[in-house]
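Entry 14. Structure prediction run on the chain below.
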Amino acid sequence: RVQMLESGGGSVQAGGSLRLSCAPSEDIGSSYCMGWFRKSPGKEREEVAGLDSHGSSKYADSVKVRFIISLDNAKNLVYLQMNNLKPEDSAMYYCAATMAARIGSVGSMFFGWDDSRSYPYWGQGTQVTVSS
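Output returned:
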């Protein structure tokens, strides 16, 4: 089964930056959608950003302008550049992927980039801690 492999988490002071990386453990083809989600204690898991292999991207309102999601298509590698981090960004960040889907599309098994049910493949998570 495909496993998503995240890296790049850590601790940083407010206003700082971190870059998360994620790659699938095996090839997931040329048409896919990847998403970043996060969960902090006492809160529901929430979407952060999504990107498909055709270059379309979406962001949660809380991270727009500050976060940038990008893709190295040749490696199926997705990055999440996080700038101007705030203490409320502290969470476990999870990378997820699904095949044969695009940002903005809805299908029988794809409920939207921001719906965790759309993604069958997940990573173990990487912790991001932002201190004030």
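The mean pLDDT is 94.
Filed with the rest of this week's runs.
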